[in-house]
């Protein structure tokens, strides 16, 4: 929403395009519909059907291209260039990062005594925005990122490691092989640590959220709880 509101009238009229594993797709489609902006959404072919259908419920054109978000992104950029669409990046954009940072403000408004925030990392927009906002409000707060073992892209750069990337995961929402340049610079500056979790930990966290909190969440959404449970010692 923050990004869409900053577009010129000409850009809005021309339309926008976004690539996404599903969550960004739904957000862009929803807010574009609210603002009357034509939207095209590109998702990978392995995006869960529920996310594809949710996106189609809005006034957006949905396309399934590529076997990963990286391949979807390449297709979306090429289409944006051909059709003169405004490309709405899911994470490597200052306006997107700032919009996601409002979550950090809300969390500290709700509980000013928070000492640590544990945040899933895909491309890095969510943790970059939250870290920027939270540390501006409370400089001593610790920010800890979480990635799934098969997609330790930010972890590798943060810790100067070379963990192998790829494979299937229940946390497809954060299955990103390369974080953004803008986001990675913020992560290195403001994030205190990045942890890795395995598939079993995510599955157990999903189960705990359902059975205890009565909350149904996707794998990426359960990643923070999985990290807290796995690294609580």
Order of helices and strands: HHEHEHEHEHEHEHHEHH
Range of helix content: 40-55%
Compute the number of strand runs: 7
| Average predicted local confidence, pLDDT | 93
Overall 3D shape? globular
Strand content: 5-15%
The helix-and-strand class reads alpha/beta
Q: How can the largest sheet be summarized? A: 4 strands, parallel
**CATH class annotation of the largest domain:** Alpha Beta
What number of domains? 2
Report how far the terminal alpha carbons are from each other: 39 Å
Tally of DSSP helical segments: 11
| Strands in their spatial order, largest beta sheet | 3-2-1-4
In terms of per-residue confidence, which ranges show pLDDT below 50 for 5 or more consecutive residues? none
Cα Rg = 17 Å
- The CATH architecture designation of the largest domain is 3-Layer(aba) Sandwich
CATH topology of the largest domain, what is it called? Rossmann fold
Explain this structure.
The structure is a single chain. Helix content is 51%, strand content 15%. The protein contains eleven helices and seven strands. It folds into two domains: 86 residues, Rossmann fold; 137 residues, 3-Layer(aba) Sandwich (Rossmann fold), CATH 3.40.50.1100. The protein is globular. α3 runs parallel beside α4, α6 packs across α7 and α7 runs parallel beside α9. A four-stranded parallel β-sheet has the order 3-2-1-4, sandwiched between helices. The protein has a three-stranded parallel β-sheet with strand order 5-6-7, sandwiched between helices. With 233 residues, the protein is an alpha/beta fold.
């Amino acid at each position: 929403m923050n990004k869409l509101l900053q577009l010129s009238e000409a850009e809005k009229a021309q339309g926008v395009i976004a690539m996404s594993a599903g969550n960004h797709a739904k957000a862009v489609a929803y807010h574009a519909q609210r603002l009357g902006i034509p939207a095209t959404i590109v998702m990978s072919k392995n995006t869960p059907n529920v996310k594809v259908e949710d996106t189609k419920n809005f006034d957006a054109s949905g396309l399934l291209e590529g076997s990963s978000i990286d391949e979807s992104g390449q297709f979306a950029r090429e289409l944006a260039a051909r059709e003169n669409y405004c490309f709405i990046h899911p994470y490597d954009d200052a306006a997107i990062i700032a919009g996601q940072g409002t979550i950090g403000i809300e969390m500290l408004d709700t509980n000013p005594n928070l000492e640590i925030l544990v945040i899933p990392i895909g491309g890095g927009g969510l943790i970059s925005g939250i870290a920027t906002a939270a540390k501006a409000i409370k400089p001593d707060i610790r920010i800890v990122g979480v990635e799934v073992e098969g997609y330790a892209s930010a972890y590798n750069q943060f810790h100067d490691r070379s963990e192998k990337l790829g494979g299937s995961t229940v946390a497809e929402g954060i299955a990103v092989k390369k974080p953004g340049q803008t986001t990675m610079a913020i992560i290195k500056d403001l994030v205190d640590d990045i942890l890795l979790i395995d598939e079993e930990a995510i599955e157990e966290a999903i189960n705990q959220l359902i059975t205890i909190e009565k909350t149904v969440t996707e794998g990426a959404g359960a990643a923070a709880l999985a990290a807290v449970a796995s690294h609580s010692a």
